[in-house]
Amino acid sequence: MLTQEQKKLEASEATTHERQSGLSDKRKMQGYEQHPRDDRSYEVFGLGNSFDDISVGADRKGSMTVAVSSRKSYKAETLSSEKKRLRGTRRRIKYEHFGQFYTNAYSDRDGAFAYKTSKNLPESRILREFIGNAKKYVSEEERSAAPFIDLDEDIAKLSEMRSESGSSNEGLSERQALERTIERKTQLRSRFVRKLRIARRHTYPGGATVDEGYDLLSALLPEEDTGEPPDDDENDDENDDVDDILDDIDDPDDE
């Protein structure tokens, strides 16, 4: 039986769309209203579907912000304003080593959220810090608005299920459903990283000051570093990333 998150992921897949823009377009970020004292950020790309939205903004001083919000509930219930938008004047700030994580002061773990950091971090590190802080400060239900946040937990669960079942077909349908979920989340995560890389380099050409020897696979599996330089081709086959992850689950001890 599919979980509510899996049903939502399947329902939203066909409606996922991308937005791409530049600072000169001055497009407002979706789901996040900045504090009046903040340096003004404008959306440089976004990923949205019928239920949720991920908006990435940048300012002219070198900061990037990832905001996650909801548009409507999969359960057809009315959403609170805190889930639809994070307001800078009502945000709660969590100070972290590489940036600031924002939650709603009136709905701390159950509202829209955002992460602000420096453009100087490589995409893999931005992703890692964003995911780590989201797990720390946001409820599981709200994290489902950016499904790839909990991808690692799904991978671990599938590995455990395969170990327990062995060659038996018991629980096969559940494992297959989880494999499809992992595939969708992996593709979304790789899509996010590629778009982040393109938007960051377009917005701040030549502006990075740290080593960027991280490829997409190291962003997906941060414990492994392939040592290869990043590939800018956004049309690379995302299924390669899925195959790499599923192969790693099948052969966890294979070096």
Keywords:
255 residues; alpha+beta; two-stranded parallel ribbon; seven-stranded antiparallel β-sheet
Question: Can you give a write-up of this model?
Answer:
The chain is α+β, with helices and mostly antiparallel strands and 255 residues long. The chain is 38% helix and 19% strand. It is built from 8 helices and 9 strands. The strands form 2 sheets. Strands 1-3-4-5-9-8-7 form a 7-stranded antiparallel beta sheet. β4 (52-58) and β5 (63-70) form a beta hairpin. The protein starts with a helix and ends in a 5-residue tail after the last helix.
List the helices and strands and how they pair.
Elements: H1 4-13, E1 17-20, E2 32-33, E3 42-48, E4 52-58, E5 63-70, H2 81-84, E6 86-87, E7 91-96, E8 99-104, E9 113-118, H3 123-137, H4 140-143, H5 151-165, H6 172-203, H7 216-220, H8 239-250
Parallel strand pairs: 2-6
Antiparallel strand pairs: 1-3, 3-4, 4-5, 5-9, 7-8, 8-9
Helix pairs in contact: 1-6, 5-6, 5-8, 6-8
